[in-house]
Prior knowledge:
Blueprint: E1 10-14, H1 19-30, E2 34-39, H2 42-50, E3 54-57, H3 63-75, E4 82-85, H4 101-120, H5 122-127, E5 132-138, H6 149-176, E6 183-189, H7 196-204, E7 217-219
Parallel strand pairs: 1-2, 1-4, 2-3, 4-5, 5-6, 6-7
Helix pairs in contact: 1-7, 3-4, 4-6
Bound molecules: NADP nicotinamide-adenine-dinucleotide phosphate (NAP).
NADP nicotinamide-adenine-dinucleotide phosphate binds next to helix 1, helix 4 and strand 5.
Amino acid sequence: xxxxxxxxxxxxxxxxxxxxxxxxxxxxxxxxxxxxxxxxxxxxxxxxxxxxxxxxxxxxxxxxxxxxxxxxxxxxxxxxxxxxxxxxxxxxxxxxxxxxxxxxxxxxxxxxxxxxxxxxxxxxxxxxxxxxxxxxxxxxxxxxxxxxxxxxxxxxxxxxxxxxxxxxxxxxxxxxxxxxxxxxxxxxxxxxxxxxxxxxxxxxxxxxxxxxxxxxxxxxxxxxx
Length: 225
Ligand SMILES: NC(=O)c1ccc[n+]([C@@H]2O[C@H](COP(=O)([O-])OP(=O)(O)OC[C@H]3O[C@@H](n4cnc5c(N)ncnc54)[C@H](OP(=O)(O)O)[C@@H]3O)[C@@H](O)[C@H]2O)c1
């Protein structure tokens, strides 16, 4: 895969307004990247703008809005080299019977946003000299609990989607007789608290020598496997 660092590349952080988004912004800016920070809260986007991001107030579950964002960036001469998808959410309940549809719909928004964003920017990532797509998933995919079944199911679906994107990158490169330049990677944590900088650094590391392979699942933090 192509490496040589993230400096000069443009990265979209989708759902950028939580602690890990701020950490990713910091790490990317320190490494010399340009950042487009997307979130649905104008107030929570302000600190990212202060750090130098182009901020976009958007509901990433709105397919039309995501398509329009991609079109606007392209019209402005911007193609993204990386997408870090952070839209999340958590709801649990008592066992399988306690997994409500309302909670599932809320959790599923994360996967819906992932589908919209990865579709809208697929051509950018595949066409980049070093395209990178990453999500933050959970160790519960391997060890699902009844009380978090909906969450585990959404994360499992998101992982399958990202691994499919990885297969797509590999196939495109193979069909074109070109070297593989893009990578889709899954980070897994048990709890994100205290690991925000580690996740941010791992994402920046996707452009560096020794980066995880296309399709890799990378555990971050103690107790992950
Ligand atoms: N927290 C953990 O312990 C943990 C463990 C394993 C995996 N993860 C995963 O790590 C990732 C980041 O975690 P997190 O706790 O930082 O996630 P999060 O707070 O649930 O979501 C990240 C950001 O996305 C924004 N967002 C939510 N819905 C959006 C939408 N429709 N359009 C645009 N922006 C939206 C949120 O902003 P607002 O809601 O303020 O608008 C939030 O700032 C998530 O994918 C999560 O599932 C987290």
